[in-house]
Amino acid sequence: MTEVSKGHAGEPHVHRGEGCGCLAADLAKAEEILAELSPVDSGDLIPLLQRLQDAYGYLPADVLAEVSERTGIPLSRMYGVITFYTQFSTTPRGRHTIRCCTGTACHVRGAKDVAEALLHEVDVEVGGTTADGRFTFENVACLGTCFLAPVVMVDDEYFGQLTPAKARAIVKNYS
Amino acid sequence: MSEQQITNVKELTACQEKFQEETNRFRARVMVCSTGCRALGSEALSKAFHDKLAAAGLEREIAVVETGCHGQCSRAPLVLIEPYDFLYGPVKAEDVDEIIQTTLVGGKPVDRLCEMVDGQPCPTRSEIPFFKSQSREVMKHCGSLDPKRLDQAIALGSYQAAAKALTTMTPEQVIAEVLEAGLKGRGGGGFPAGMKWQFCRNAPGTEKYLICNSDEGDPGAFMDRALLEGVPHQIVEGMIIAAYAIGASKGFVYVRAEYPIAVEHLNIALKAARAHGLLGKNIFGSGFDFDIECRMGAGAFVCGEETALIASLEGQRGTPRPRPPFPAQSGYNKKPTIINNVETLGNVPRIIAEGKERFASVGTTGGKGTKIFALAGKVRNTGLVEVPMGMTLREIVYNVGGGVLDDRPFKAAQMGGPSGGCVPAEFLDLAIDYDSVKSVGAIVGSGGLIVMDDNTCMVDMARFFMEFVQEESCGKCPPCRVGTRHLKDILERICAGHGKESDLDEMEKLGKEIIAGSQCGLGQTAPNPVLSTIRHFRGEFEAHIRDHKCPAKVCQGLYQFVIDADKCIGCGICAKNCPTAAISGEKRKAHAIDQQACVKCGVCNEKCPYAAISKV
Fold first, then answer.
1. Quick one: which of B198, B161, B206 has its CA closest to B176?
2. What is the pLDDT of residues B92-144, one digit of tens each?
3. Tell me, what's the ipTM?
4. Which fold has domain A96-171?
5. Are the C-beta atoms of B194 and B272 separated by less than 8 Å?
6. What's the predicted TM-score (pTM) here?
7. What CATH class is the domain B21-129?
8. A105 touches chain B (CB under 8 A)
9. Is B463 within 8 Å of A102 (Cβ atoms)?
């Protein structure tokens, strides 16, 4: 690892050791993942990105650049994949993710009203993150829990048989 | 279960007998669904059973088993008590004491937790109409075992079919058995599985791959999720047999990232199978090597298409490739590859174990065996149902499904998701199989079956699906990328009341062009939801276009909220809640809505305690 690495703003940065909060300090997680998956082949790109996103919460540009350097997978190839799949995010995400199911069963049981109530309640747009970093809001085509319709997932928890009022009450419990 | 190696059929059978004995030590078993029902609190429920049975000193005679899906999800959380075959639901932790006292100690049913049939409690699962009309073959063990335990799967006969295939049959014999059974791909394609295997078997080369497609992206289908979560060893066994038949030594299961429980249970199953030598080198001493890797999707519907799925497995953007060459000749890493759906593979062990005749004895000429449907929407019993091919839509919706919610009229069933179409009420007596459903403009597809009542707007449904496929189009073929967008724009216009007379013809023309000009299954079927709704519900489109009315009162802007002056007592609750101050009136006198200011949010309708507000 180099002592001088690029800071988030792209300016030269002098590493101050542990607790510095810069990329060099943060690369440890990426190194661990690369070591575990070694030898990394371009066919492993999706599992690799999934692991990186799990570790960092999103895919930071400077981590990707470093990973590209070490694996030989071109950055352009990485971004091609990242922008194709909805799971990947290159911007920091909210502390909680609201996944609003817009599948057929939810749709016919009033998912649109639930989604609108939630968007209004937390003040965000579909795909966006709230200004306070509390929530990222995503629509998902089907959560495969149609018997709970309409259903919303907050992080890994399911909430089913919702009404706009119930949905508004649920997000109040997250800080 | 100790990690003993199972290296031949004799050892497998010895294990099966030993594990059956262990199961039989318990005089009763409490089967708590811990997959789908988890969303409604079944984890706390099984903990309550564990704790209270232990406190009562019954834990040595009564087992608590955390199982897969029982199927009748509308009664979740569900608990099945064996050997009584009593099915309870919805069960809360507070009900546990009574179940222990009345059923597990007293041997009698708890009436209030039973399904009501003709006003009488019906405790016995096999007598509940929902189950009575089903033929649970693939889902037979789903709900009867702990999916995290290999020993319970072996006790119920898992891996016997794989042992039979690997030690007593040639790959060609396995292929012939599956081909003659008439098993067709359950993922939507409906292509004969045995024929596909034959192509791959005959393809030159020794490096071949098997992929289990669990990228179940069709909105409204969840049988693959339930099978992977509930009977993962059955799928692993199906994969071993398929791999042996085609000559593959490596397999993948490609699962949607939105299915965390399926991923968890599959990985546990793979680990256990490997530890006991059921995966790996020289399985059952047959000289056949095979192992499986679980890969998670990353959120792209198009990856359910086989060539896109392969691209995704290779670490690329999930865009489809032209066929031919078909994956059976050139697939993953350009090697011969077979991609089978979860339910297809779930059928394989029983074909080998019970024989092709038994499998083919069920079904029609247009489809053999059973099919699992995910019943959802405006139907009383939502959940997973497995019925013989050839059952009528009426039997599925009314006998198994218990009829339309709130006894409203049946309007249509959406079948086959975004690649399918709507089957209207006039075809309720249609015997469902691959060919018959196609003839009315829908497809069996993966088995999503969404029931719609008269409150569902078919134009809005078409718009909904177009929004979905437009979003999920990978963008490679312009007719799909641009055409679906254009269809969606037209439909949005119609839903907003700005439709033109020429729109219907234009959509039909455009739909046919998208089908002709797209490379993969997504584009080739994308216009189906639109074309089928125009075909069966033309009048509803015309009402939107000519009269600016939405007969189902779903499309915002094509209906109004009005206050019934006779019912309104002037409480003012609606006016207080209206976000745009569109409601006015004197206290204790009938209020009125200013239609210019109203944004049709429906809050007033939701809040009115006297049901005085309605849509017209």
1. B198
2. 999 999 999 999 999 999 999 999 999 999 999 999 999 999 999 999 999 99
3. 0.88
4. Glutaredoxin (3.40.30)
5. no
6. 0.91
7. alpha beta
8. yes
9. no
